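Sorry, any thoughts here?
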Amino acid sequence: MTTSVERAPAAQQAVPFTAKERWVLVVASAWLVIGLQLDAYAHATTPELETFWTPWHGVLYSGIAASGFTLLWIMRSRLPSIPTYQSLLALPNALRLPLAGMAALLVGGGMDTLWHNVFGIERDMEIFVSPSHEFIILGMALVAMGPALMQATLPGRTLGFGGGWLVGVSVLFAVLPVHIYSLHASAIGFRHLGMGNGDEPIPIFSPDAQLVHGYLFSTVLLLLPLIIIGRRWALPLGLPTALIAIPALLMHLMFDSEDAWWPALTLAVAAVVLEAGFRIANRFVRLPVNARWILLGLLAPPLAWGSVLVVGKIEEGSVGFNIHIVSGLLLYTALTGAATVLVARSVQYLQAE
């Protein structure tokens, strides 16, 4: 039994992505995500903000426009003079996914003004559930990963200096909106470290359960980009550290800059030490590639979060959890990390028969 697979026209397949196109999309997507950063920071530091017409929204929505025009510019040589539905479907995935993201941004952006006018400005947990915001975050992630997808169309298993920077920045701007949007379910934040002093209520329904969930969710979200990049290329030196340390530091800067910096700094330093340790171990321990990744998933999460909890114990005198929860939590993060590796590295490309 055979199946026929439609091929894109030769003219469309023959147009490789240029470095200029990849970097211009990086700049446009950075503009877009920085707009989200500024808007999130404004809402976190100015709770009484009650208008849609803010400078931060101006940066965000001009970033949407810049990303849209950039994608149109990249598509110009890859579509016939009169585009058709078939010619759009024949575009490579490196363009189709960012285009789907742009569609989500346009839907979310169009809904957002109307939503605010009808239902008011969202606050607290409402921000993370509002439908218009969900479309915007999805669109940002898909557009921002475009440059990395374009880089993946080039042959070779090794990223050079420029390629490593491009993939790193692209993936960082793709995951950062998800970190921000999932703050309520993340361990990258002051209120999710199990060290509340009881003076202020934690704005979640079940603090203990939510705190444990935050570590597991963050484990998946921090590991997944590394695993996906590692399936295509050898991870450039420093990239794993950057994709863990930078979100941790930026999340603290945006949402808790007035409090102690030790949680974010501890996670950042742990990322440096763990990357160095695993790279050294790879030189001396000969194991199959999958086995090395599974060990990374098993060991890195409990070592990283364990470091944060140890420093928390030193700094605060208590981590808010007893030995049963701490030991079980670290075991959960190890199992979650290993499961993330197994699933992400087991997904296969669909091969034409």
Q: What stands out?
A: Residues 191 and 202 are 7 Å apart (CA to CA). The radius of gyration is 22 Å. DSSP finds 14 helices and no strands in the chain. The mean pLDDT is 83.
